[in-house]
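Input record (Table S2, row 248):
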Amino acid sequence: MQNLPVVELKNVSFTYGCHPVLNQINLIINSGEAVGLVGPNGSGKTTLLKIILGQLKPQTGSVQLFGQDINKFKDRYKIGYVSQRAVHYNPQFPATVREVVASGRVAGRGIFRLLTRSDYSRVDRVLELVGLKELSRRPLSILSGGQQQRVFIARALAAEPAILILDEPTVGVDQAAQESLYKLLYRLNQTEQMTLLIVSHETEGLSSVITRQVCLDKYICTCQFSTTSPAQLREGICAKRLALQVAE
Ligand SMILES: Nc1ncnc2c1ncn2[C@@H]1O[C@H](COP(=O)(O)OP(=O)(O)OP(=O)(O)O)[C@@H](O)[C@H]1O
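Output record (adenosine-5'-triphosphate complex):
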């Protein structure tokens, strides 16, 4: 079978009202890649994620997921999404870690079907994968920020996605937890062959995970990771240089 790109954007442009944000973006993400999406504040990273997730429709260009036009794409569970920790769950919600992760199983299977033994074995497998097996019966609310973020990653993985998209996965967690989250993402990509798309400002940690880096500032460029230092990335040099090249 032909190995189709997981995500393919062709000439995608997006404007909020009269404020252009993305200009003629072309981007291909292939299976098995770990792509880091970086760029200055307001450069359109979240907008680009929303377009890939189908939450925003570009004014021009096309979006294909697994070789299919996004407007016809039905297998939403194949796209796992972990948004910034603060916005996606009320941490006081009275549910155990295992229950939260099991709710990810519903996403792929429909809300009217009871979870089966095989669903729960997948839940237990991902809990083990993210290192939360021992905490599975604990309430989510008593976990640390880093542990909660692992729960949300496990919940997304429970649906058996083909790509995991993470928006600033380390925001609000301490240094040790950041390092351990990046180690987990590295393992998911290298051992479990999970395709990753990660938006992050935290470029040092990101560099330990990604296989390719994409800089965005209205235009897009792919940088050879080895030739771009975290300091250059922080300053958005790569993206600015490209914008100049495109404008010239
Ligand atoms: N709903 C909206 N309506 C109008 N403008 C918006 C809207 N959402 C975002 N914008 C603007 O679009 C631009 C890109 O925003 P976006 O959130 O995609 O950037 P970002 O790169 O993710 O930023 P950050 O790194 O700060 O999270 C910004 O100038 C932002 O103010």
